[in-house]
Every structure is written in C-alpha cells, then in structure tokens.
Design a protein that fits this description.
The complex is a heterodimer. By secondary structure, chain A is of the alpha+beta class. Chain A contains two helices and three strands. A three-stranded antiparallel beta sheet of chain A has the order 2-1-3, with helices on both faces. Chain A starts with a helix and ends in an 8-residue tail after the last strand. The model of chain A has no long low-confidence stretch (mean pLDDT about 90). Chain B has a single domain, classed as Acid Proteases (Cathepsin D, subunit A, domain 1). Chain B is built from one helix and twelve strands; from the N terminus they run ββββββαββββββ. In chain B, the strands form three sheets. In chain B, strands 4, 5, 6, 7, 8, 9 and 10 form a seven-stranded mixed beta sheet that branches. A three-stranded antiparallel beta sheet of chain B has the order 1-12-11, with no helix packed on it. A two-stranded antiparallel sheet of chain B has the order 2-3. In chain B, a hairpin with a 4-residue loop joins strand 11 and strand 12. Classes of the chains: A alpha+beta, B mainly beta.
Chain lengths: ~70, ~140
C-alpha cells in the first residue's frame, strides 16, 4: 500500500499538461504509460513494472467538464 | 475517523487550472488483477460509471442489460455490472460492492455516483479548503 500512496502523492503534484485527453499510468511515482487505449497502456505498464502497484488516471481534455 | 483527500489541480483551458474532487480507489473484478484508479466523485451522477476498457481489464461481467444513459454530453450506451471497491487511507479501509455502468466510450472518466456509494458516507465537498471528506456511516 505504501507504494500506492506514493503514486497518489505523485499524481497530486504532477504537471499533467502534456497528457490532456489521455489515460495515464503512474508507477514508482512517474508516468510510465499514456494513451487512449486503456487495455494497451495497462499491458504496457505490466511489462514495464511487473509485480508493482500502479495507478490509472484520466487527464481531461481542455475545457470545462460538465457531466 | 474520516478519509480526507485534496482536490487535484488539472490543466484547464488556456493555462487555467481546474480543481477536481477525485480520489484514489481500488477496483477488483473477476480477474486476479486489482486496479488502483483515480475516480471523480460526482454528486450529480445517479450511478457510478467506468469505461469499457477498464471493465475488460478487470474482467467484469458484461453480459448484463444494456441501457442508454444521459448526460450533458448526450446519450451513451452502457452495460449494467458491478465491481468491488476499496477506499484506504492510513489505517482506515472500507471495501464494498457497487453497481456500475460500463460505458462503451473509452474516453469516459471514472465516476463515483450516488447509487450505493454516497449512502455509505457523509461526504463533504470543502471547496474553500479544496478537500473532499468522507466519513463512514456507522449505522
């Protein structure tokens, strides 16, 4: 769990400007995969960080989000 | 005891910033994989929603009834399913199952809506201090 807390802390402070409109995965406090296809980036993250906890997040596109 | 989360500041339009009440949760479906994700807590959403790509990674049951869901962005087709969710902070942990709508649109954000989620907690959106506070109901 400690590792996951670190990923969340990294997410809170990260500048995600360049990932607008994409899914990102954080592992070891860094963005290790990004893209529009969730299955693809999860697979990529599992290859890069096997047996490690990672965190998936969506960075909204530019503009106000009204759901 | 309460779970306290800071709002996440995300990039907005033309250099502006958007503050969102989003929290880390762990989803567990029918695969062995547990996925830690950031989910937006949305009091305006009737139900929780996840994109299909995530549902497939979690191996959720996608044979449930289909339904059209409506939002500001228009109509999207969804499948009814459910997922186990864990909220954890320091020594506090809460795990329960919630119904979920699986959106066919992979760009759909992960949303925690009211059904079976908001009834578990007293939820405070503290905009002034940019915090979201969830206090578990004891009865």
């Amino acid at each position: 769990m400690a590792r996951n807390d670190e990923n969340y802390s990294a997410y809170l402070t990260a500048n995600l400007e360049k990932y607008k409109g994409k899914w990102i995965i954080l592992c070891d406090e860094h963005v290790i995969a990004s893209g529009e296809d969730i299955k693809k980036i999860v697979s990529e993250a599992q290859e890069k960080c096997p047996d490690k906890k990672f965190l998936l997040a969506r960075v909204p596109e530019e503009g106000t989000m009204i759901l | 005891m309460a779970l306290i989360y800071h709002y996440k500041i995300l990039p907005g339009k033309k250099g502006s910033k958007v503050k969102t009440p989003s929290i880390p949760v762990c989803f567990k479906g029918n695969s062995n994989l547990k996925m830690d994700v950031i989910a937006l807590v949305d009091s305006g959403a009737d139900c929780s929603v996840i994109p299909k790509g995530l549902a497939e990674v979690l191996n959720l049951d996608l044979t449930g009834p289909k339904q059209d869901s409506f939002g500001f962005g228009g109509k999207i087709e969804c499948i009814e399913s459910d997922v186990s969710i864990t909220l954890r902070q320091n020594h506090e942990e809460h795990e329960f199952k919630i119904p979920i709508l699986v959106s066919s649109d992979d760009s759909c954000p992960i949303i925690l809506g009211r059904n079976k989620f908001f009834s578990k907690f007293k939820i405070t959106f503290d905009g002034k201090h940019e915090k979201l506070i969830l206090k578990k109901h004891t009865v």
